From TrEMBL, chain A:
The lineage of its organism: Bacteria, Bacillati, Actinomycetota, Actinomycetes, Micromonosporales. Belongs to the ABC-2 integral membrane protein family. It is a multi-pass membrane protein. It is found in: Cell membrane; Membrane. PANTHER family: TRANSPORT PERMEASE PROTEIN, TRANSPORT PERMEASE YVFS-RELATED. This is Transport permease protein. Residues 44-271 form the ABC transmembrane type-2 domain. Keywords: Antibiotic resistance, Cell membrane, Membrane, Transmembrane, Transmembrane helix, Transport. It holds the Pfam family ABC2_membrane. The chain crosses the membrane at residues 46-65, 85-103, 124-146, 158-186, 250-269.
UniProtKB/TrEMBL annotation, chain B:
GO terms for molecular function: ATP binding. This is ABC transporter ATP-binding protein. The keyword Transferase does not apply. Transmembrane segments: none annotated. It comes from Asanoa iriomotensis.
Length: 273, 268
């Protein structure tokens, strides 16, 4: 059997393929397929990762629903909380991509990926939306748990499509944030510490658990700069119909994702050295 | 006139204050198996990483098939298949999934993808194991899987960084057999690094001896041995004479040692 050299000779090599939307899309698809394949081989991670959101909903959610101490504008507290827990769950999945990329660096995987004809930004975009795929799988689990607890989420296909987009964007941004930090700290141990250190502040400085109006003034200021809040607001608006500034929410998430991809791409070469 | 497969002119590279490569000139002809030899820390991997554009180099220093690596990075990468020193196949994917990923990343047309993936796996003797998760493979099989990943895009230049490190002698033999078969069947250029002198002596058309960032000796293994003037000498003797010391006395960076041990550990 013979495998011919299919690559063109140097003199006839096509012009370099730069960041065309088609190339980015092909890399996103390639890396998302890998994520789906991994999930299909090992579904145990979905179950173990479901424990924490289940605890938030079952223990925290049902208890505070009975206590009626958090004013949620006529919406049962569990319904109010569920989109926040969904967003938190996606955040937790995404933020560990920084650790994963350091592992990939140590294992030579990153170098191998970077020697493919894939611009750094396309590689980061692919990773970001692969995190989105995992985030979506996680969101389905949280959605199911919430439904079992009696939360009545929307079944409107358009709204659910909106939820998919919000989850993808949120996961992509937090994945990029994590990869950016990984590119700065370069060490798995430090990355694990920082990952743990930023997750809970991001969560508590958002509207995931309580309305913004209940926050002290300084926390409200931080909340305005926290993309998680815009993600939660959009999810809440789409899933349970609470008032939401959807154009603003989508705008912030898109902008945050673009900035995140740019920052992570800029630091990827530092990781590969 | 045909361009060399690789041309490196006066390559220097520093990591902070440490000089990793200190003025390397190197030409690899199309179709040859060229081995960069030397202990860990000699600058082989840095040279390889510069050729693959993983490390930034100034324009005019490195060309691959006539393309300047600094200016035509993506075009150069389309010509290269690369296997890093570490075991980089994804254990949580099957063999066929590992190879398919690289077929997609190299834009192998959809209509040809399945056939190319099967061909690459077949060339590496992995057809039967293709559906199994890579974490169930032996060390030698994983190396062959990585070769299949690198070959799926039909590269003109195959770059292998320590392809047999950590493998048992049988697996090492099998990997070398496959590399030789690929070269024989495709005429592909192979540039590899190794610190196993006896393997390089048997398998490489030409070798270059690297020591402390310098490329000192270049030639066929036979030429270098003959230069020594001792008929019973080996390439390792040549290296000792050139470097003035033992391979084991070389300084190794912590990262090199860690990577080597991790690879050996994963191979069991």
């Amino acid at each position: 059997m013979s495998v011919p050299l299919a690559a063109p000779l140097a003199g006839s090599v096509d012009v370099d393929r730069r960041m065309s939307p088609r190339l980015v899309l092909s890399r996103v698809v390639a890396l998302c397929i890998v994520e789906i394949q991994k999930l299909s081989h090992d579904r145990s991670e979905l179950i173990t990762r479901a424990v924490q959101p289940a605890l938030w909903l079952v223990i925290f959610g049902t208890t505070f629903t009975k206590l009626h101490v958090i004013p949620t504008g006529g919406v049962p507290y569990l319904d109010f909380l569920a989109p926040g827990v969904l967003a938190q769950s996606v955040l937790f999945v995404s933020i560990f991509y920084g650790i994963q990329i350091i592992w990939e660096r140590d294992a030579g995987v990153l170098a191998k990926l970077m020697v493919t004809p894939t611009p750094r930004a396309a590689l980061v975009t692919g990773k970001a939306f692969a995190a989105g795929v995992r985030g979506l799988a996680q969101a389905v689990v949280v959605y199911a748990i919430a439904e079992l607890l009696g939360v009545r989420f929307t079944v409107n296909p358009l709204r659910l499509l909106g939820v998919v987009v919000v989850v993808l964007l949120g996961a992509a941004f937090f994945c990029c944030l994590s990869v950016t930090i990984a590119g700065l700290v370069l060490s798995r141990d430090r990355m694990m510490g920082i990952g743990q250190a930023i997750m809970m502040p991001l969560f508590f400085a958002s509207n995931a658990l309580y309305p913004v109006e209940l926050m002290p003034g300084w926390l409200q200021v931080i909340n305005h700069f926290n993309p998680l809040s815009y993600q939660v607001e959009a999810l809440r608006g789409l899933l349970i119909g609470t008032p939401a500034r959807l154009p603003l929410d989508f705008g912030v998430l898109i902008l945050a994702t673009v900035v995140g991809i740019a920052a992570a791409s800029g630091l990827l070469a530092r990781l590969a050295r | 006139m045909t361009s060399p497969a690789v041309e490196v002119r006066d390559l220097h590279y520093k990591f902070g204050e440490t000089t990793a490569v200190d003025g390397v000139d190197l030409t690899v002809a199309p179709g040859e198996i060229f081995g960069l030899l030397g202990p860990n820390g000699a600058g082989k991997t840095t040279t390889i990483r510069a050729i693959t554009a993983l490390l930034p180099v100034p324009a005019g220093v490195i060309e691959v098939f006539g393309l300047d690596v600094a200016k035509r990075r993506m075009a150069v990468r389309r010509l290269i298949g690369y296997v890093p020193q570490q075991l980089s196949a994804d254990g949580s994917l099957s063999g066929v999934e590992n190879v398919s990923l690289f077929a997609r990343l190299f834009d192998v047309p959809r209509g040809q993808r399945k056939a190319k993936v099967s061909e690459s796996l077949e060339m590496m003797g992995l057809t039967e194991a293709a559906g199994r998760l890579a974490k169930t493979y032996s060390g030698g099989m994983i190396r062959r899987l990585e070769l299949a990943q690198a070959l799926v895009s039909s590269p003109q230049l195959l770059i292998l960084d320590e392809p047999t490190i950590g493998l048992d002698p049988i697996a090492r033999g099998s990997v070398w057999e496959r590399i030789a078969a690929v070269r024989a069947e495709t005429g592909m250029t192979v540039l590899l690094t190794t610190h196993y002198m006896e393997e390089a002596e048997q398998s490489c058309d030409r070798v270059g001896l690297m020591h402390r960032g310098l490329l000192g000796k270049l030639g066929t293994p036979r030429e270098l041995i003959d230069e020594l003037g001792r008929p019973e000498a080996t390439l390792e003797d040549v290296f000792r004479a050139y470097s003035g010391g033992s391979l084991d006395e070389e300084q190794k960076g912590l990262r090199d040692v860690r990577a080597t041990r991790r690879t050996a550990g994963r191979l069991g």
